[in-house]
Every structure is written in structure tokens, then in C-alpha cells.
């Protein structure tokens, strides 16, 4: 049974530098995902240490955090049916050179860490990550005429 879920996306500094923010958001909008949170935000080291905690023992950890602080990122909360898996599929695998053609990472990037985008990898991490970057009042539920196509019976 499909669930309405939320997912956290960060459009990374490489995409901001390369003026790809609009392109990335357009892909999500066209797919029918609903933006319920959006902000430009400069990340600090403490937030990144927490966010990338699963990579703390990797040799690239310090460089990854430095990369993520180069410019502000654009943080999004997306809502939709099974949105966590849908977003990961739109984003593609971590190494852009191994990602499927048609995914954001394969179409727009060539390397790590500069792979355009972060997306939550499970419903549980999405809940934690949304709280990491957004206050409750910054995630805004609203009706859209297209909800009936993307969320409901489709008629
Ligand atoms: P994900 O972003 O696809 O979920 P994770 O394994 O959670 O992948 O890694 C988080 C981020 O760390 C990646 O998106 C990438 O920017 C960076 N990263 C992952 N592996 C490497 C690496 O081997 N070298 C440099 N950066 C890496
Ligand atoms: Mg990850």
C-alpha cells in the first residue's frame, strides 16, 4: 500500500555554483512531488558532523564537510506517495559515473563528493533529517489542484 511520505533533499554547493538549482527542482516538480519546505542555508560543521555521522571514519570526511560549507545549499522537503524511494531513484547512485542515465547524478555530474544532491535514504532518516534542517513552522502543508493526480485516485 502506498504511503504519503516526506523526504529531505539538499541541493549541494556544486549545483549552486554551477547554476543547476532550477534544473534539479524542475525535475522534482515535473514528476509530481510537492514542495512543502524550501530554504537557502549555509551549513555549519556541527550540523554536517551529525548529518554525515555514518561516514565519520572515512578518509574523505573532513573534505566532504568542507565541500558542503563552500556555499549555501538549498534544502527541500518533498512530499508524495512513497517519496523516499521515488526521490532516491530520481537522484541515482552515489557515484555519478555508475548512476543510471536519466537520473540527476548521471545526467548532471561526474564525481564524488560533487554529485549535486543529498536525499534521505529511509523514512526513519527522513524524519530525523527534516528536523535537522527545518523547524515545524517551516514545513507547510497546503492544497494544490494537482493533488488529485499525484496523491489520490487520479480522477
Ligand atoms: P548518498 O549521498 O548516495 O546517500 P553516502 O554514502 O551517504 O551516499 O555518502 C554521502 C556523500 O558523501 C555522497 O553523496 C558524496 O557526496 C560523499 N562521498 C561518498 N563516498 C565518497 C568518496 O569515496 N569520496 C568522496 N566523497 C564521497
Ligand atoms: Mg546517504
Keywords:
about 160 residues; alpha+beta; Alpha-Beta Plaits; 8 helices; 4 strands; globular; binds inosine-5'-diphosphate; binds magnesium ion
Structure commentary:
The protein has 155 residues and is α+β, with helices and mostly antiparallel strands. It has a single domain, classed as Nucleoside diphosphate kinase-like domain (Alpha-Beta Plaits, 2-Layer Sandwich). The chain has eight helices and four strands; from the N terminus they run E-H-H-E-H-H-E-H-H-E-H-H. The longest helix has 11 residues, at 21-31. Inosine-5'-diphosphate (IDP) binds at residues 55, 60, 64, 94, 112-113, 115, 118, 121.
Lateral strand order in the biggest sheet: 2-3-1-4
| Small ligands present | inosine-5'-diphosphate, magnesium ion
List segments where confidence is low: pLDDT < 50 over at least 5 consecutive residues. Answer: none
What percent strand? 15-25%
Span of the ends, CA to CA: 19 Å
CATH-defined architecture: 2-Layer Sandwich
What sort of overall outline do the alpha carbons produce when their principal axes are compared?
Answer: globular
CATH superfamily: Nucleoside diphosphate kinase-like domain
* Main sheet makeup: 4 strands, antiparallel
Q: Which fold name fills CATH's third level, the topology? A: Alpha-Beta Plaits
How many DSSP helices?
8
Query: How many extended strands?
Result: 4
Amino acid at each position: 500500500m502506498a504511503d504519503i511520505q516526506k523526504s529531505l533533499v539538499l541541493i549541494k554547493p556544486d549545483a549552486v555554483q554551477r547554476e543547476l538549482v532550477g534544473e534539479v527542482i524542475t525535475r522534482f516538480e515535473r514528476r509530481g512531488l510537492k514542495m512543502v519546505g524550501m530554504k537557502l542555508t549555509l551549513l555549519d560543521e556541527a550540523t554536517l558532523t551529525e548529518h554525515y555521522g555514518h561516514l565519520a571514519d572515512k578518509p574523505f570526511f573532513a573534505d566532504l564537510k568542507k565541500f558542503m560549507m563552500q556555499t549555501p545549499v538549498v534544502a527541500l522537503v518533498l512530499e508524495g506517495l512513497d517519496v523516499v524511494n521515488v526521490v532516491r531513484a530520481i537522484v541515482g547512485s552515489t557515484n555519478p559515473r555508475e548512476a543510471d542515465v536519466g537520473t540527476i547524478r548521471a545526467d548532471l555530474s561526474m564525481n564524488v563528493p560533487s554529485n549535486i544532491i543529498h536525499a534521505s535514504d529511509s523514512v526513519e532518516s527522513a524524519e530525523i533529517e527534516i528536523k535537522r534542517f527545518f523547524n515545524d513552522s517551516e514545513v507547510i502543508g497546503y492544497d494544490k489542484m494537482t493533488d488529485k493526480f499525484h496523491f489520490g485516485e487520479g480522477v
